[in-house]
Amino acid sequence: MTELSVLLDHPRLIAIHKPAGLTVIPARDEDPALAVRQRLEAQLGTPLWVVHRIDRETSGVVVFARDADAHRMLNQAFEHGQVRKTYLAWTAGVPQPPTGSVEVALHAARKGKMRPALPGEAEAKQARTDYWVEAQRTLGDVSVARVRCHPRSGRQHQIRVHLRSVGHPILRDALYGMNTLREPWASLPVKRLALHALRIELPDLFGDGAVVVEAALAGDLVAIHGWVEAR
Q: Can you give the pTM of this predicted structure?
């Protein structure tokens, strides 16, 4: 089994580049040994604590704690909004305005999905995503944007639902952008959810300075990245 790429090996935490197609924790009806946590524990020969997760088809930075106390401190940093997360998403169409925020509360839906909450709905979870359209390209009837996203909260599928809520789903999103699986989108050079966890910035939690970890674009996203740039 291919080793996972380690981006940062710190005495209290470890950050890796999660490939698309793998779950962070064991998925239902799958061999637990296939999950990232289990693979990384076997690779390093040490137990790890899960701090946060990204979706199976999302690539990019994932952080694990090396001990229970570090796990508590990292969890608190995430919960209190002290961690800055940066994602790149490629969308069907171009969000307007080109810089802004989507502040839409989310609610659990059927089959593990999320949806925008109704006004005053019980159990709604507040969520905000700041975004910036970095690049865009139009070819015939197709427009694609590369959007830098900063989720200010950590809700399940937050970026995916927020971009869909403004009419611009992420390319190849089988849950929230089924139309992007068909032509004219299907011929674009991306074959999975076009979402990448680019960077995580952690505050100084352990007395040795703030931590910034960045994951280079996964190979299967390089083509769509270049396609959008070729305006």
A: 0.95
